[in-house]
Write a structure and sequence with these properties.
It is built from five helices and eleven strands; from the N terminus they run E-H-E-H-E-E-E-E-E-E-H-E-H-E-E-H. By secondary structure, the chain is α/β, with parallel strands linked by helices. It is elongated and about 60 Å long.
């Protein structure tokens, strides 16, 4: 490599709550000569970053406009409600939308859930970010409904969370510009999908080869014994034939004079 040559690199975007550690480790094991750069991006800006070429691929939250972006759905997250540890709901294992009817539920501007109508009573003002909303929950202002990964990301010792039923769930997908499906993108897709290092990546298998014909021209037919050998495997030499008793064959008797 000359001084002007730069090794190829792969830029991977990810939204808050996604932990790409496992896939990055596999990438580094399989392609040690191709560095992978992580690019953190807010969920609302992920699609635009991919379209503008800011990353080769990225973990995004669905839905995304698939007009020019490809996407492979990976998993669906549990939706939870973040509550103070001294809240009465800590006594239950899960909550429902009806349980939030009289609660103030914060709805941050970067909310990732596709609400038709958010549950509970709205706050006087919407927090700018989910992280800000978590701080307000800790201050006793209200509760917060988020994907479980975000509750873990912004965890505080004075807060906890419970699964919430009857609400939208967030889905994570791997996305990339459809017109930029490069070999490196294909490599990362294979890693995410669990392909092994020896995978054919969808190439058709080698067709079966025809069986070789027998040299005698009769497939499955027994070969004739070699010349000079009996069918029992004995030798047919020039010696005299054996009589039934095993002695030599006697000639004709002489006529007496």
């Amino acid at each position: 490599m000359t001084g002007s040559e730069v090794p190829p690199a792969f830029r991977l975007a990810y939204v808050p709550g996604v932990t790409p550690t496992k896939w990055v480790r596999i990438w580094n094991e399989r392609l040690p000569g191709t560095p992978l750069t992580l690019v953190g991006v807010p969920a609302a800006d992920a699609a635009a970053l991919l379209r503008d070429g800011g990353a080769d691929a990225g973990f995004v939250r669905l839905p995304v406009d698939r007009t020019d972006l490809s996407a492979i759905p990976l998993y669906t997250e549990t939706t939870v409600v973040v509550i103070p540890k001294d809240h009465a709901a800590v006594a239950v294992e899960e909550m429902s939308v009806e349980d939030l009817a009289d609660e103030i539920v914060l709805h941050p501007l970067d909310d990732t859930l596709d609400w038709e109508r958010p549950p509970g009573r709205p706050a006087f003002e919407r927090p700018a970010t989910t992280e800000d909303a978590v701080e307000l929950v800790a201050a006793g202002v209200g509760l917060l409904v988020v994907p479980q990964s975000l509750a873990r990301l912004y965890h505080r010792k004075d807060l906890t969370y419970r699964p919430l039923t009857g609400v939208p769930e967030s889905r994570i997908a791997l996305s990339w510009p459809e017109e930029e499906t490069t070999d490196l993108v294909e490599e990362f897709i294979g890693i995410v999908r669990g392909r092994t290092v020896n995978s054919t990546r969808g190439r058709p298998p080698t067709p079966p080869q025809p069986k070789a014909k027998r040299t005698d021209g009769k497939s499955g037919a027994p070969r004739k014994p070699a010349a000079g050998k009996t069918s029992r495997g004995g030798s047919g030499g020039s010696g005299g034939a054996k009589n039934p008793k095993g002695g030599a064959k006697r000639g004709k008797p002489r006529r007496r004079p």
